[in-house]
């Protein structure tokens, strides 16, 4: 069974959407980097896929720039897909698919829309084992159109425990500030306690961004880079240049 099943509960979905998502440090900048890369391809985006879409925050940014693009949002959490339908209700060119991408069968669910100019994913793939991450990156490569781009905005592994602890403090401070702004009364210690005991933490299988970029290069992606990184939050990906099949 794929990890991260806690995302299917309304409790975790709501907690993330109303709190954690808004506390992710430099989240707007991450999305800006994603959009710059998408625009830099020169593709007039006709179709894109958002894997582990949550409420469609990344899709919203793409649709804002390419309102006529055909969007496919896939997530295995019903409450998340419901939130996405609500957020993106102004658009009628979207397919919402409730499905688990934990094994290759998900490809059949999106094959009717193949190929995609852009594939994005936000803070989702890190629940997969490293071998499954690699397979998934290959599956995404095969779904991309010539010159298509894959961008993963992702939680990655700190190189050392010390660096990891700096990230944890940074994130906790941000969570604390957000809950104060929202009228919450939790102390910094209480916020830290919740952060260290969060239900999705067990399901994390973080991998270093360098290793993941190396996998993308091996698969055949071009212009692979970690385009942005602040501690454990990274924006990385690559392009499928001129239909190059990677061999
Ligand atoms: C942390 S949320 C991120 C949501 C959104 N992408 C964002 O950037 O805010 C992770 C999302 O990935 C989804 N997810 C995790 N594992 C999945 C899987 N194996 N198949 C489909 N969706 C998955 C969860 O349901 C959840 O909506």
CATH architectural designation: 3-Layer(aba) Sandwich
Structural class: alpha/beta
For the biggest sheet, the summary is:
7 strands, mixed
Instruction: Give the N-terminus to C-terminus distance in angstroms.
Output: 32 Å
Strand content: 15-25%
- Could you say what the CATH topology is called? Rossmann fold
The domain tally reads: 1
Globally, the shape reads globular
Order the strands across the largest sheet as they lie in space. 3-2-1-4-5-7-6
Protein model, in words:
The protein is of the alpha/beta class. Helix content is 43%, strand content 21%. It has nine helices and seven strands; from the N terminus they run H-H-E-H-E-H-E-H-E-H-E-H-H-H-E-E. It has helices at 10-23, 27-40, 57-65, 78-87, 106-110, 130-143, 161-181, 188-196, 209-219, and strands spanning 47-51, 70-75, 94-98, 116-122, 144-155, 222-230, 233-239. A seven-stranded mixed beta sheet has the order 3-2-1-4-5-7-6, sandwiched between helices. The two termini are 32 Å apart. The model has no long low-confidence stretch (mean pLDDT 95). S-adenosylmethionine (SAM) is lined by residues 2, 4, 7, 16, 21, 52-54, 57-58, 75-77, 80, 100-102, 122-124, 127.
């Amino acid at each position: 069974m794929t990890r991260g099943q806690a995302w299917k509960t309304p409790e975790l979905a709501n907690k993330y959407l109303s709190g954690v998502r808004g506390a992710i440090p430099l989240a707007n900048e991450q999305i800006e980097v994603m959009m710059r890369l998408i625009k830099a391809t020169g593709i007039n985006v006709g179709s894109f896929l958002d894997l582990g879409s949550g409420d469609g925050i990344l899709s919203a940014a793409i649709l804002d720039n390419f309102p006529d693009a055909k969007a496919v949002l896939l997530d295995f959490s019903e409450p998340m897909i419901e939130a996405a339908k609500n957020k993106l209700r102004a658009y009628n060119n979207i397919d919402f698919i409730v499905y688990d991408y934990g094994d290759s069968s998900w490809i059949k669910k999106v094959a009717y829309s193949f190929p995609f100019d852009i594939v994005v994913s936000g803070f989702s793939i890190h629940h997969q084992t490293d071998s499954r991450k690699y397979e998934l990156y290959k599956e995404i490569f095969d779904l991309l159109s010539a010159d298509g781009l894959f961008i993963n905005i992702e939680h990655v592994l700190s190189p050392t425990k010390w660096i990891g602890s700096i990230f944890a403090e940074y994130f906790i401070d941000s969570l604390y500030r957000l809950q104060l702004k929202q009228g919450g009364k939790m102390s910094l210690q209480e916020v830290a306690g919740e952060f260290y005991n969060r239900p999705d933490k067990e399901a994390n299988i973080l991998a270093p961004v360098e290793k993941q970029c190396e996998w993308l290069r091996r698969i055949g992606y071009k212009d692979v880079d970690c385009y942005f990184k602040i501690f454990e939050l990274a924006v990385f990906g690559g392009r499928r240049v001129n239909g190059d099949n990677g061999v």
